[in-house]
């Protein structure tokens, strides 16, 4: 019994460490993004403490950006709630995907804890891990991502434009580099996924650049195109029952 | 005009519920083949949509973003992990902008 318990503790610690390691690029990207988010928050009149609390609780780049803009515009609370619902709707899809990968016997409180931190990036690394979701791997990621996201916002509010534009520019692609590292390896193995990615790039570019459609904000664009393209892919090439998104463990 | 803390509370409440409800309500495995397939493709689609063209708008000059994308795709294709690919993208932007700007 004792060995069993020790083993479980060791597995938890391993998962936690591995979560920390995989979240380092996420954290660096977050620091850059939340720094610029802090500048938006400052313009909306938030103190560093208020911005830090908002970032700690919400952990959402597009959502917070939209929220700060609405605060600056003195919007109604109903508008705020609707905007948060729409712009964060993709998290609902991600949580739904994660729920399919979560052990039904896992203690319930874990869902309440890691559920609040389902971001694009933490979702990506957790869904990419083979097997059932490990809350301790998730917590390892949160241990890096949440403090850096919060700190970046505070620093952005306090320090404004202190960092040179070159550095901000370079750091701002860290996040996209991580997205690329996640979607390219499966696309290499499966041509259909490569085609989907190409379609997504083209559609995303078209919606943003075509004059008629360019008024759509990026959160809404992501929701609508995700629904259309993922549905089309599911119809064209359904996966076998029981298939869950599985890729190689990144950087293993 | 509301108190800033009220706004933050609403932001948090809605964002949290959107994330946690699917994890707490839909706890039984999904049977539908379509829904399963749909969810299988969602991560690739969402990440691809958010990467491009956002990556070329994130940098000071679009060419830096394009080169970062190309460098990242090549590095990931040849098996580089998350941190190396991210670092390569950042380096591509830094170098491009040192030359171009």
Helix content of chain B: over 70%
Instruction: Please report the number of helical segments of chain A.
Output: 12
* Proportion in helices of chain A: over 70%
Q: Number of helix segments of chain B?
A: 5
Q: Which sheet architecture does the biggest sheet of chain B show?
A: none
Rg value of chain A: 19 Å
Helix/strand class of chain A: mainly alpha
Features:
heterodimer; A: 252 residues; mainly alpha; 12 helices; 75% helix; globular; disordered C terminus; B: 101 residues; 5 helices; flat
Plain-language structure description:
With 252 residues, chain A is mainly alpha-helical. Chain A has one domain. Chain A is built from twelve helices and no strands. Chain B has 101 residues and is mainly α. Chain B has a domain at 32-100. Helices cover 80% and strands 0% of the residues of chain B. Chain B is built from five helices and no strands. The relative contact order of chain B is 0.08. The model of chain B has no long low-confidence stretch (mean pLDDT 90). The chains are: A mainly alpha (252), B mainly alpha (101).
Give the helix/strand layout.
The complex is a heterodimer of chains A (252) and B (101).
Chain A lengths: L1 H42 L4 H11 L2 H12 L4 H11 L1 H11 L8 H8 L4 H8 L7 H25 L5 H7 L2 H16 L1 H19 L8 H19 L16
Chain B lengths: L3 H22 L7 H19 L2 H5 L3 H16 L4 H19 L1
Give a brief outline of the structure:
By secondary structure, chain A is an all-alpha fold. Helices cover 75% and strands 0% of the residues of chain A. Chain B is built from five helices and no strands.
């Amino acid at each position: 019994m004792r060995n069993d318990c020790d083993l479980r503790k060791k597995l938890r610690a391993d998962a936690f460490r591995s979560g920390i390691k995989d979240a380092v690029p996420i954290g660096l990207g977050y620091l850059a993004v939340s720094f610029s988010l802090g500048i938006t928050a400052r313009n909306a009149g938030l103190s560093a403490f208020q911005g830090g609390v908002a970032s700690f609780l919400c952990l959402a780049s597009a959502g917070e950006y939209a929220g700060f803009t609405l605060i600056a515009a003195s919007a109604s609370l109903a508008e705020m709630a609707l905007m948060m619902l729409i712009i964060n709707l993709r998290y609902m899809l991600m949580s739904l995907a994660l729920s399919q990968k979560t052990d039904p016997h896992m203690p319930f409180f874990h869902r309440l804890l890691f559920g609040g931190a389902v971001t694009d990036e933490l979702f990506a690394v957790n869904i990419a891990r083979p097997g059932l979701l490990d809350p301790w791997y998730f917590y390892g990621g949160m241990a890096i991502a949440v403090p850096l996201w919060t700190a970046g916002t505070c620093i952005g509010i306090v320090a404004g434009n202190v960092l040179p534009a070159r550095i901000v520019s370079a750091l701002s692609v860290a996040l996209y580099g991580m997205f690329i590292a996640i979607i390219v390896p499966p696309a290499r193995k499966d041509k259909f996924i490569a085609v989907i990615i190409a379609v997504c790039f083209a559609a995303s570019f078209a919606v943003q650049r075509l004059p008629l459609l360019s008024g759509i904000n990026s959160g809404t664009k992501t929701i609508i195109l995700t629904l259309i393209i993922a549905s089309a892919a599911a119809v064209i090439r359904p996966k076998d029952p029981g298939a869950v998104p599985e890729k190689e463990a990144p950087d293993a | 005009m509301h108190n800033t803390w009220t706004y933050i509370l609403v932001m948090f409440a809605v964002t949290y519920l959107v994330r946690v409800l699917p994890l707490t309500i839909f706890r039984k495995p999904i049977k539908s083949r379509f829904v399963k397939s749909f969810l299988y493709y969602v991560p690739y689609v969402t990440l691809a949509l958010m990467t491009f063209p956002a990556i070329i708008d994130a940098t000071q000059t679009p060419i830096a973003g394009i080169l970062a994308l190309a460098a990242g795709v090549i590095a990931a294709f040849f098996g580089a992990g998350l941190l190396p690919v991210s670092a390569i993208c950042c380096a591509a932007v830094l170098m491009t902008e040192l030359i171009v700007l």
